[in-house]
Amino acid sequence: MFVLVVGAGRVGSSLATTALRANHTVSVLDEDALSHERLDVELGSSWEEAGGRFTIGTALEQDALEQAGIAEADTFVVCTNGDNTNLVVAQIAQKRYGVPRVIARVLDPRRAAWYREQGLHTICPTQIAIEQLEAAALTEV
Fold first, then answer.
1. Could you give the number of structural domains in the chain?
2. With 80 as the cut, is the pLDDT of residue 66 above it?
3. 39 burial type by CB count under 10 A (0-12 exposed, 13-18 middle, 19+ buried)
4. Which residues contact 5 (CB under 8 A, 6 or more apart)?
5. Where residue 115 sits, what CATH number does that domain have?
6. Among the listed residues 49, 53, 2, 54, the one whose alpha carbon sits nearest the alpha carbon of residue 30
7. Residue 52: which domain range?
């Protein structure tokens, strides 16, 4: 399976290295060249030597998405630090490129729910934290 991860922060780099270790073909797109180091650290070796692909560019640039391999992607995960970018790019992957599985990290629970209702697979870490904190704080001792 070809997995394209946009955003190589803590979440994206962890997902990318897990997918690469599971023998998937993995490409990462990030605007910061230094984020490549996080991938090397996660693996304990060179990202490229392990078979990974890395592209420097912004998620909103069509050329960067194409260079990273969006047209080949079976799974597309966008987890930059901006909800707007994640939602726009996820819709581009889904509608323009027809990527079979598109997943967007969205920090705002209301927006995540609305886009999920529109057919976009969203993951909302804020909502997950709220649910866990409520369960932990409001359970009787």
1. 1
2. yes
3. buried
4. 12, 15, 16, 19, 26, 27, 28, 29, 77, 78, 79
5. 3.40.50.720
6. 54
7. 2-137
85-139 residue pLDDT tens = 999 999 999 999 999 999 999 999 999 999 999 999 999 999 999 999 999 999 8
Q: For residue 120, which of 102, 93, 99, 141 has the smallest C-alpha distance?
A: 102
Q: Which residues of 58-72 are buried (b: 16+ CB within 10 A; e: fewer)?
A: bbbeeebbeebbbee
pLDDT the model gives residue 40: 87
40: Cβ–Cβ under 8 A, 6 or more apart, which residues?
46, 47
Contacts of 12 (CB under 8 A, 6+ apart): 5, 6, 28, 30, 77, 79, 80
The encoded tokens of residue 110 equal 């209301």
User: Rounded CA gap, 128 and 33, in Å?
Assistant: 30
Single-letter amino acid code for the residue at 110: R
Give the residue carrying structure tokens 């605007």. Answer: 31
